[in-house]
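Design review, sub-item: ligand-bound model
Attendees: FS, YL, KQ
YL presented the inputs for the 2F8 complex:
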Amino acid sequence: PPCPEGWQEFQSRLYFFSKEKDTWSESRQYCKDRGGDLVTIKSTEKQVFLNGFMKRNHFWIGLSDRGTEGTWKWVDGTALTKGYWKRGEPNDADSAEDCATSEPETTPLNNWNDMPCGVNRHWVCERSVC
Ligand code: 2F8
Ligand code: CA
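KQ shared the predicted structure:
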């Protein structure tokens, strides 16, 4: 796809913070349609950068344990090694939470929460530079 407008560059990758809300799967499809995927977060620098844009809302990130409960995997197929979970998360509330969001108004570094994949949230895409 052509290079999309309105994406932020950080460390030679491009990021999109949605204004709309959608399910985790639909959000992921939006990113894929634009040459990317939901964001992966594998460094503290990136977690800090992203949080500069995610202070006000929940945003889907590219992490789920849909395949095997309790085994968190990034959308690129890699296993989660270091998570920035909010205290008490992930808790799989009502045994129904398999997709990860960033939460607003929590500590900036540890702010992830697992949520039901079918609820509508903002999302963050990542793709290569053009
Ligand atoms: O207390 C944390 C808990 O809060 C909510 O459940 C009551 C969240 N669920 C939704 O917002 C749908 C949980 O994900 C969260 O763990
Ligand atoms: Ca949760």
